[in-house]
Amino acid sequence: MKGRVTLKDIAAAAGVSASTVSLVLNGKIGSRVSAATVAKIRDIAENLHYQPDINAQRLKGKALPIIGLVVPNITNYFYSEMTKGIMDAGANAGYNVILLNSENTLQGEQLAAEAFLSVRVAGAIVCGVCEPGTEESVILEELKRAGIPVVKIDRCEWNEKYPRVMIDNYQAAYDSVKCLHRLGHRKIGIIATTWDLGIMNAREQGYQQAMKDLDLEISESMIYRKKSYDLTDEEADEIADDISKHLNRHTAILAIPGDVLAIECIVYWKRHGINVPDDISIMGFDNVYMGSIIEPALTTVDQPKYEMGKGAMELLIKAIEGRSGAKRLVYQYQIIERNSVRNICASE
């Protein structure tokens, strides 16, 4: 058979009407079609390699078995593992995933939302770029008004109206400081950002509170703050260079923007003869793969990225199907201790 296989082609081969074929392939048979006829139609459709006409379904206003996913930066290892969990869970439930990259801009997120509306996806998973209550809320409301359920992942506020998947970023940063303190560090600096992002704010607040509770000194000179979140190599080198000029201020650094920045600092310091962890210790966030193979291996906060992705998809499918379920999934983090942090207590 040449060209695209249609419902009429299947109907002719099965000796039934095209409307009967449509009912069977759309799962709306009820008791109107015999089991033998259903089996026959499905076998013929499979043998003819039938594929539904997506454009025709969209014109009829039907939501497709497609999930829209938007992430800030697809080159970041964190998002690739999270995306794998989303796609695997989607495939198991019969959904395909369209992945779009916002480039950490509201314009990019808006373009992704417009694409989702155009295709008429069944639902959307969003790892956003800014705080709720700003322009992003307008973008998400567009999807909601179109009947497209939304689940947020990772970059979420603790209390917001959308279903969300996250860790307790405040407590993770708090426990990171406690880990460094247990290993003998008393002068603990932090790499932070001026970008108004909820998870970054929560991590910095966790750092600040832990330092206060442990009666450790906090000063602006120990906080290395940059405007952007996804730093370029040059910006990362600037931070690493700044820290290297003031090694007497701190024995350890907590890099809350993530492992990639911590790894870039280690590479820069190596090039300039600074030993990690003897001259300076550093701890990251996220537990990306590269952190485990760099020398020295990176101490970090592990987020269960794959599991979070699966959880987001399962949460979204419940919303698509109108089933009730949790509105917030908070996953457990784990601190992975490796060799980038010196145990001062053991060496004294």
UniProtKB/TrEMBL annotation:
The keyword Transcription regulation applies. InterPro entries: HTH_LacI, LacI/GalR-like_sensor, Lambda_DNA-bd_dom_sf, Peripla_BP_I. Keywords: DNA-binding, Transcription, Transcription regulation. PROSITE patterns: HTH_LACI_1, HTH_LACI_2. This is LacI family transcriptional regulator. The keyword Flavoprotein does not apply. Pfam families: LacI (PF00356), Peripla_BP_3 (PF13377). PANTHER family: HTH-TYPE TRANSCRIPTIONAL REGULATOR GALS, LACI-RELATED TRANSCRIPTIONAL REPRESSOR. Residues 5-61 form the HTH lacI-type domain. It comes from the Bacteria. It comes from Candidatus Lachnoclostridium stercoravium. Gene3D superfamilies: 3.40.50.2300, lambda repressor-like DNA-binding domains. GO terms for molecular function: DNA-binding transcription factor activity; transcription cis-regulatory region binding.
